[in-house]
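Input.
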Amino acid sequence: MKKLKLQVQTSIDGFVGGPNGELDWMTWNWSEDIKKYVNDLHTTIDTILLGRKMTDGFVTHWENVPESDESYAFSRVMVDTPKVVFSKTLTESKWNNTTLASGDITEEVNNLKNKSGKDLIVYGGAGFNSSLVKANLIDEYYLFINPTALGNGISIFGTIEDKRRLDLTESKAFDCGIVLLKYAPKQ
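Output.
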């Protein structure tokens, strides 16, 4: 069975966005070691999951990276990797290399997990990630902790109704100041 991996940047106090969704607190000047880590992570997946609200910005960003940009090679990976967009309102996808999922989130994700191939990764947005966390569908959490405290903001864990115990399976400090904490649900 495929795993569903969540890759998300958070503040040290656990927020994925400021109170109004601001992302200006994130470390954008990544060091080579974190770039390599994320590139290597992508060799383990064959599908990207996205919520409808995030898809326009995500697809538009990666499709418009110029060849002269240092992230161009990675942008091609993001563009070429098939994407599944979860939406209750859309009836057709307007984005390249995407399909829609509109059924029950648990059923749709479990159907994707049961297909052959590599693992799945989810980028969000925050509401979609929160739904996956609440439904206990995440198999590996890749939390990239930025060296910033926000005080308040958007959390992907705010909707869980019961305590979640996790096992730390990896931790790594990167030269740019971001720290990875990788967790799996406690068995």
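Residues 17 and 154 are 5 Å apart (CA to CA).
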